[in-house]
Design goal:
By secondary structure, the chain is an alpha/beta fold. Helix content is 49%, strand content 12%. The chain folds into two domains: 1-34; 40-321, NAD(P)-binding Rossmann-like Domain (Rossmann fold, 3-Layer(aba) Sandwich). The chain has 14 helices and eight strands. The mean pLDDT is 95.
Length: 326
């Protein structure tokens, strides 16, 4: 069965469409005999998750609160966050669901939110970077950073650093990044990360930000391994979320029934948050459908991913975020 599963998995990966759609999730669930996640006891664990008022983040928050975790939602809108938390508390019977207000693209708001989270929870066990949107028009953050990069690269980098004391106190802890298969199309380039107004394309900006995300996740993994903080990135495949409906309506119309449900898209994220086997055997991996995946499909992106460019990205992120860390 393992040989068959490996063969089917390889064929799905090669096809891309088969891998990223609901077909891949259905076949892999059956062939790899995925253990159900519901029923795990996460009582006493604190999970912080950004972008959890809809889509994949909401599905992850629903699953984790249902397992008894204390869940803190980081959201832009207080009203939407309150409504979401009320829904989660009612559905799970778990009263320990709260929120802080911050846009992940606003660094000052994140600093305030991190202070509030540390005051509430001296120990945090899981930090999930899920927030992010594909913007059609170039915008800038309050700090003057192109918004896609601010919200999906600089902001999560800052929040990770600010919550390190609590993550260390919660060790063994996990930091998880929700990326996208779109990163496979873009090389790592610090100079091309913030697109100018003349060249701006939302899909390209999003893919470049996702490439930077997984690189920074791997760099954090190297730095935090001794602290027993595991860092991973994952991509959910193509899921039918409100973000896809808003930003990629043509893509959604074409693929339609082949798109994954949000729950299928969030499965590997939840698995990484709760499973003590493979996710804790090695840090700094990139996952899809509960298997570690390569970071590159193209030789051009592989060539760009040099130790020198990785260190340039780290220094750039430190500078942009204002984080006091080497």
């Amino acid at each position: 069965m393992s040989i068959v599963a490996d063969g089917v998995d390889a064929a799905l990966e090669w096809s891309i469409v088969g891998s990223f759609t609901r077909v891949g999730a259905a076949l892999r669930r059956r062939l790899d005999r995925w253990a159900p996640l519901a029923g795990r006891d996460l009582g006493g664990r604190v999970v912080v998750i950004t972008g959890a008022t809809s889509g994949l983040g909401l599905e992850a928050a629903r699953a984790l609160s249902g397992m008894g975790a204390t869940v803190e939602v980081v959201a832009r809108s207080a009203a939407k966050a309150e409504s979401t938390c009320a829904e989660l508390r009612q559905a799970s019977g778990n009263p320990n669901v709260g929120f802080v207000v911050a846009d992940t693209g606003n660094l000052e708001a994140l600093r305030r939110a991190a202070t509030e989270l540390r005051e509430r929870h001296p120990a945090i066990h899981v930090l999930i970077h899920n927030a992010g949107a594909l913007e059609d028009v170039r915008q800038t953050s309050p700090q003057g950073i192109e918004l896609t990069v601010a919200s999906q690269v600089v902001g999560p980098f800052l929040l990770t650093g600010l919550l390190l004391p609590a993550l260390k106190a919660g060790s063994p802890a996990r930091v998880l990044w929700v990326s996208s298969g779109g990163l496979y199309s873009e090389p790592l380039s610090v100079d091309r990360l913030e697109m100018t107004g003349e060249e701006y394309d939302g899909t390209t900006a999003y893919a470049r930000a996702k490439r930077a995300q997984v690189t920074l996740a791997a760099l954090w993994a190297d730095r935090l391994a001794a602290e027993r903080i595991w860092v991973h990135a994952m991509h959910p495949g193509w899921a039918d979320t409100p973000g896809v409906a808003r930003s990629l309506p043509k893509f959604r119309r074409v693929l339609g029934p082949l798109l994954r449900t949000p729950a299928d898209g969030a499965d590997t994220l939840v698995w990484l948050a709760v499973e003590d086997g493979a996710p804790l055997s090695e840090t700094g991996r990139f996952w899809h459908d509960r298997r570690a995946r390569p970071l590159h499909r193209l030789s051009s992106t592989q060539r760009s991913d040099t130790p020198e460019e990785r260190q340039r990205l780290w220094r750039w992120a430190v500078d942009k975020s204002g984080l006091s860390i080497r």
